[in-house]
Amino acid sequence: RILQAASRCDVAPDGIHHDLLLAKLPQACAADITALLAGEGSKALSAGLAAARVLLPSVTGVRWRVDVVISTARLSKVLRPVITLELTLSTGQLRRLEMSVMQFHELRYCVAQSLKAMHDNRRNPLHKVLAAQQQRAQQAAASASA
User: Fold this and answer.
1) Rounded distance between C-alpha atoms, residue 143 and residue 146, angstroms
2) Inter-residue contact 83 to 100 (CB < 8 Å)
3) Rounded Cα gap, residues 70 and 123, in angstroms
4) Which pLDDT value is given to residue 79?
5) Mean of pLDDT over the chain
6) How far apart are CA 11 and CA 50, in angstroms?
7) Contact criterion met (CB below 8 Å) for 11 and 133
8) Would the pLDDT of 110 be above 90?
9) Distance CA 16, CA 6 (A)
10) CB 3.0 to 4.6 Å from 20: which of 24, 25, 59, 120, for a disulfide?
């Protein structure tokens, strides 16, 4: 992941080396990563990382409704709510999910846990270093074009 993030930024190798040391990576590891990114194979590395990237479809639309099951073939009176989600994916596919209220709450809880984990990951020092490096690169590009 370090290589992927660093290969996306057009930054001087000494800047990357310095930031990796700030992220408390060992000197040897920082030197190796900097050599990979600055060496002759950097373009091949970037191409390889781009080819290895897995692109999953994203959700472009959500429709939902709550249905109440009044009766079934076995029981005359059920009165049980069922939540129906219809997800539209970026590939154009429609995915339909039907779940009980209990399953919906479990899904909601799992999504909340995932979002919290993503938020906590953003607090990682290396992520902060890479974000600062990207911001510096954008500012340098903006000042060069102005």
Assistant:
1) 5
2) yes
3) 48
4) 85
5) 81
6) 18
7) yes
8) yes
9) 8
10) 25
Q: Would the CA dihedral through 16, 19, 20, 26 be positive or negative?
A: positive
Phi then psi for residue 124, to 5 deg, are: -60, 135
DSSP the chain: -HHHHHHHS---HHHHHHHHHHTT--HHHHHHHHHHHHSTTHHHHHHHHHHH------EEEEEEEEEEE---SS-S---EEEEEEEEEETTS-EEEEEEEHHHHHHHHHHHHHHHHHHHHHHTSHHHHHHHHHHHHHHHHHHHHH-
Q: Which of 31, 90, 80, 36 is nearest to 60 (CA)?
A: 90
Give the dihedral of Cα atoms 119, 121, 126, 129; nearest 10 deg. Answer: -10
Query: Contact at 8 Å (CB) between 36 and 2?
Result: no
- Count the neighbouring beta carbons within 10 Å of the beta carbon of residue 17: 19
The candidate with the shortest Cα–Cα distance to 133, out of 37, 36, 44, is: 37
Q: Is the predicted pLDDT of residue 26 greater than 60, yes or no?
A: yes
First to last CA, the chain: 32
In tens, the pLDDT along 56-108 reads 899 999 999 999 988 877 878 878 899 999 999 999 999 999 999 999 999 99
